[in-house]
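Researcher: Here's the sequence for the chain we discussed earlier.
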Amino acid sequence: MGAGALFAAGTALSVGSQLMGAYTNKKAAKNEQQQYALQAEQLEIQKGILTDQYRQQRQKLQGDAVAVAAANGVKVSGSVAESISNSLTQLGLEESRQKFNLDMEKANLAYEAKMSKANAKSKFLASLLNAGASGMKGYATYDKYWGSTDE
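Model: Thanks. This is the structure I predict for it:
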């Protein structure tokens, strides 16, 4: 096998490996997108669990307060009712704050997923362009040294 053929084979291998790299990167980016989607789903599940937990806490607080008041012969009104209301309000604020944090995490994941997708497209295109440039450079070099003799 002559030097020209070896050079052409080397160029073809280089172009082929760059194309394989482009498609490997594309697949990796798709997997990353799926991971972001799964994380967003997990945050939604966490929000649902959080809602249930706070509902149970509110019910327990109300039940305990009413039971203690009734055991002591106190009517649930006035300062007792106000205390229960304040405690429920605090629980509601805490729940809202935690849900807001989960929503912000989810929004951040959506942004990261969008940026990841844009970067993946850019990398894929760059890999294709590099493969094309390698092919053209290889052809030009081959043509100069082993190609046509028209000069």
